[in-house]
Write a structure and sequence with these properties.
alpha/beta, four-stranded parallel beta sheet, three-stranded antiparallel beta sheet, globular
Length: about 170
């Protein structure tokens, strides 16, 4: 694995919101245009400027936007999420490894925390985290939005999905 400083960082335009969440689960620093206020008629220009200023790759399904700066922008040729993921893996931009190091909601780094440390917060907010199978289970959470992450059947299913998308597809 390359060092974090050399990993690509992304911005997803509004047409790639689902991809944004998935890239975050893969551990990539990914901003989402859906977090910007609506109604900015120059949003594409703003996204391009942010990509350049922050050394990010802008991902889009907008062919016109992709032609504006082919160094900063990657056109997503597939409409479906699995096609977009496959494209990014095959072009070498991302590795198909579910790392769970970033919050899928807000992009902040996840931090390790024990179930014991979480207990006070969870007692006050029982709907946030359904519990774990043991106190030794590795739990990470986002300090910003308080979303908890842990290895479970849902992560095994996501890993299987990534494997099928990247290695078992026939296209």
């Amino acid at each position: 694995m390359t060092s974090r400083s050399s990993e690509p960082r992304f911005i997803c335009d509004r047409m790639a919101g689902s991809l944004c969440k998935f890239l975050r689960l893969l551990g990539y620093d990914t901003l989402n245009a859906n977090d910007l206020p609506l109604g900015n008629l120059k949003e594409d220009t703003t996204l391009l400027r942010n990509a350049e200023k922050e050394n990010r790759i802008l991902l889009t399904r907008d062919a016109e936007l992709s032609r504006r700066d082919q160094n900063l922008v990657r056109y997503l040729s597939g409409e479906r999420l699995d096609d977009q993921i496959r494209q990014l893996v095959r072009t070498g931009l991302v590795k198909p490894d579910l790392r769970l190091t970033r919050c899928s909601v807000c992009n902040n780094q996840l931090v390790p925390v024990s179930a014991t440390t979480l207990s006070k917060y969870l007692n006050e907010n029982p709907d946030i985290f359904p519990g774990s199978s043991s106190d030794d289970e590795k739990i990470t959470w986002c300090r910003h939005c308080k979303k908890a992450y842990w290895e479970g059947s849902h992560t095994r299913k996501m890993r299987e999905q990534i494997h099928q998308i990247c290695f078992l597809s026939d296209d």
